[in-house]
Design goal:
GO molecular function: zinc ion binding
Oligomer: single chain
CATH topology: Four Helix Bundle (Hemerythrin (Met), subunit A)
Organism: Vibrio jasicida
Strand content: under 5%
Radius of gyration: 20 Å
Number of helices: 4
Protein name: DksA C4-type domain-containing protein
Keywords: Coiled coil, Metal-binding, Zinc, Zinc-finger
Distance between the termini: 36 Å
Shape: extended
CATH class: Mainly Alpha
Pfam families: zf-dskA_traR
C-alpha cells in the first residue's frame, strides 16, 4: 500500500502573499456571474413557456446564492488583507491567540481561532432561534 505524503503547509508569509490574488479571482468570478445574471434577467418573461421560465428562475436563484457566497468570501479576504496590513494576520481578532498554521492553510481568510469561531456561531444560532440538536457538542 502506497503511503500518502502529507501536504506541506505554506508559511504565514506565503499565505499573506496570496490574498490579493485571491481577492482578484473573487472579483472576476463575481463580475462573470453578474453578466450571466443580467442575461438571465433579460430572458425572463420573454414569452418562453412555463418550463423554460421555471428553469430560468431556478438558474437565477442559483446565481444569486453564488453571488451572496462570493460577497461573504470577498469580505473575509478583505478582512484578512486588513489584518495583514495591521500586522495581526494569523492572530485571532477576538482573543488574540496565534491561529495554528494548519488552520490558516485550510482557511487562509480566517480571523478567528477555532474556539472563538465556534462561540460566534453558537451566538449567531441563538439570535436566529436555531436550537442545537440534543447531544450536539461544539
Amino acid at each position: 500500500m502506497k503511503q500518502v505524503q502529507p501536504k506541506s503547509l505554506l508559511s504565514l508569509e506565503e499565505l499573506q502573499a496570496k490574498l490579493p490574488h485571491e481577492l482578484k479571482n473573487i472579483q472576476v468570478r463575481r463580475s462573470e456571474l453578474l453578466t450571466s445574471l443580467r442575461t438571465l434577467t433579460s430572458d425572463l418573461g420573454c414569452g418562453s413557456d412555463s418550463a423554460d421560465e421555471a428553469d430560468l428562475k431556478s438558474e437565477h436563484e442559483s446565481i444569486q446564492r453564488e453571488l451572496n457566497r462570493l460577497a461573504a468570501e470577498e469580505s473575509n479576504v478583505q478582512d484578512a488583507i486588513r489584518a495583514s496590513r495591521d500586522e495581526c494576520y494569523g492572530y485571532c481578532d477576538c482573543c488574540g491567540v496565534n491561529i495554528p498554521l494548519s488552520r490558516m492553510n485550510s482557511s487562509p481568510f480566517t480571523t478567528q481561532c477555532v474556539d472563538c469561531k465556534g462561540i460566534l456561531e453558537v451566538r449567531a444560532a441563538q439570535q436566529t432561534g436555531y436550537r442545537m440538536p440534543s447531544g450536539s457538542r461544539i
